């Protein structure tokens, strides 16, 4: 077994906690207060302060009754705040149970006053380790929930480090209870915790960075007005190889410029938002809806039966026409023209399909608007005009 100096290891353990607290404070300054970094900074600070008190106490610089209970209380509260901070990082808000941290200190103090267990190094260390193990495992479970929803790259390693740190504390509790000379083993365990503290601080910051980058990426692919995808998002969502039945609807609002000119762009924006919401409610779960710009939308319907293409397009046209638009008491009659194109054979390309739907849309416009026109077949080898 590797022999480590317990005093040196505990000093480094304290340093790792205080460095982690400083990292979280810096992160909180750079990011929003709801990100959980302030809570995490408080968590590392409390555990670090408790460890410093224990060091002073072991050197007889503080009364034993004071430093034992104070260091244990700070350690218990600090690890509890760590679990709370991870939850706040996940959801952006404090869990309702966070107030229990203050209440939990009361039975701890009562038990200490009645039994004096905190004066026994073995019992005090066991309680500290078991609490730390529980809180770290809860934090790992919270990261698991975050990973399942957001699938951030840093979540899995953070989850692993938190779980391993919790397991290390749990094993430490076992060593304290069943090994007579447990101090050398604790030195090795706290050396592992030092590495874990640095890793937790780095990985939590990485999770926040991953979320920020993901948010920016989503913002770049979403239309800011309607909240649906834009051209860039559409290109990423469309399959690389089209299959027979894959269908595109090019949907364009009729005489939309007149609405903007007569009632203002705010009224026009209201119309676009309502139409986007209607299209979102009508599409199937695997259909892809995007705003192509201005008043034009595109709906990709994978593997739609040929017999259903026109009826579905007609239902969409009727639903848009039925939206009850009003502006200052004036009824706005909003209609749409729809061009439909469908894949009939393997080997047809996305540009060919969109171009055919676009040409069908022009046919619908020339046919009097507020109608549906279908391209008979995607001409093979076409390129967009």
UniProtKB/TrEMBL annotation:
It catalyses: 2 GTP = 3',3'-c-di-GMP + 2 diphosphate. Keywords: Membrane, Transmembrane, Transmembrane helix. It comes from the Bacteria. The chain crosses the membrane at residues 6-27, 34-54, 66-86, 98-117, 123-140, 161-180, 186-208. SUPFAM superfamilies: Nucleotide cyclase. Its EC number is 2.7.7.65. Residues 244-377 form the GGDEF domain. This is diguanylate cyclase. The lineage of its organism: Bacteria, Pseudomonadati, Pseudomonadota, Alphaproteobacteria, Rhodospirillales.
């Amino acid at each position: 077994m590797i022999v480590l100096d317990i005093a040196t290891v505990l000093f480094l353990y304290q340093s790792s906690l205080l460095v982690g607290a400083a990292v979280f404070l810096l992160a909180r300054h750079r990011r929003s207060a709801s990100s959980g970094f302030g809570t995490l900074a408080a968590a590392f600070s409390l555990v670090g302060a408790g460890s410093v008190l224990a060091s002073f106490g072991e050197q007889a610089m503080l009364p034993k009754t004071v430093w034992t209970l104070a260091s244990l209380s700070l350690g218990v509260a600090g690890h509890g705040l760590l679990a709370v901070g991870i939850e706040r990082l996940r959801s952006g808000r404090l869990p309702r149970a966070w107030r229990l941290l203050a209440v939990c200190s009361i039975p701890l103090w009562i038990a200490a006053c009645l039994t004096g267990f905190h004066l026994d190094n073995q019992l005090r260390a066991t309680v500290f380790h078991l609490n730390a193990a529980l809180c770290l495992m809860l934090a790992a479970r919270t990261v698991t929930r975050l990973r399942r929803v957001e699938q951030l790259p840093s979540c899995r390693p953070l989850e692993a480090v938190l779980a391993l740190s919790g397991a290390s504390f749990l094993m430490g509790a076992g060593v304290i209870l069943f090994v007579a000379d447990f101090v050398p083993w604790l030195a090795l365990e706290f050396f592992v915790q030092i590495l874990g503290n640095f890793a937790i601080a780095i990985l939590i910051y990485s999770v926040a960075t991953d979320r920020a980058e993901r948010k920016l990426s989503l913002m770049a692919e979403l239309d800011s007005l309607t909240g649906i995808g834009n051209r860039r998002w559409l290109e990423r969502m469309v399959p690389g190889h089209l299959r027979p039945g894959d269908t595109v609807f090019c949907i364009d609002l009729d005489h939309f410029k007149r609405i903007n000119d007569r009632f203002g762009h705010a009224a026009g924006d209201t119309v676009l938002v309502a139409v986007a919401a209607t299209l979102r409610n009508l599409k199937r779960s695997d259909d892809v809806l995007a705003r192509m710009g201005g008043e034009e939308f595109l709906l990709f319907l994978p593997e739609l039966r040929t017999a259903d293409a026109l009826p579905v397009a007609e239902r969409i046209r009727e639903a848009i026409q039925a939206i009850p638009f009003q502006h200052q008491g004036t009824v706005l009659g909003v209609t749409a023209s729809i061009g439909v194109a469908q894949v009939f054979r393997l080997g047809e390309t996305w540009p060919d399909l969109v171009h055919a739907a676009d040409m069908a849309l022009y046919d619908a416009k020339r046919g009097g608007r507020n109608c549906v026109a279908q391209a008979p077949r995607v001409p093979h080898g076409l390129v967009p005009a």
